[in-house]
Automatic annotation (TrEMBL):
Signal peptide bounds: 1-26
Keyword field: Signal
Domain of life: Bacteria
Keyword Transmembrane helix: no
Name of this chain's protein: Rap1a immunity protein domain-containing protein
InterPro entries reported for this sequence: Rap1a (IPR041238)
UniProt domain Rap1a immunity protein: residue ranges: 33-124
Biological source species: Gluconobacter kondonii
Length: 134
């Protein structure tokens, strides 16, 4: 997977918590517009990025289902809360570091591994990334 594909994949996963009903949190959301996505998905040179973005978004929804049973519980935790000021390179670096520290995740589907990494790294009850959580 290319670097840009990884960025789009992470952006799609970062958008997944919006689907969970919980207290509002300032959260990083991709700035990719519908127009930009349409262009990306229509150009032969960026089809791979489009597929990665769509796969990431679908993975995010699938893994968000884990928290679906808490939809009406205001005190339930949100899957993860990526601060709005986090950049894609920062998120990518933290996910890669998390993967290096969690060998068990290397044989899991990528969506599940990234979901776990974001959940551990960006808990919603803290404003800064967690250090060494598993």
């Amino acid at each position: 997977m290319t670097r840009l594909s990884t960025i789009f994949l992470l952006a799609g996963l970062a958008a997944a918590p919006v689907l969970v009903s919980a207290p509002a949190h300032a959260q990083r959301v991709s700035k990719v517009s519908g127009k930009a996505l349409g262009q990306m998905c229509s150009s032969k040179s960026s089809i791979g990025m489009c597929d990665a973005y769509l796969s990431g978004l679908m993975d995010g929804e699938a893994w968000a289902k884990k928290y679906d049973t808490f939809a009406h519980d205001e005190s339930a935790p949100v899957a993860f809360c990526v601060p709005a000021q986090q950049t894609a390179p920062q998120i990518r670096g933290l996910v890669v570091a998390w993967l290096h520290a969690h060998n068990d995740a290397l044989t899991e589907p990528a969506g599940k591994a990234v979901y776990r990494a974001l959940h551990d790294t960006y808990p919603c009850h803290a404003s800064a990334p967690a250090e060494g959580q598993k």
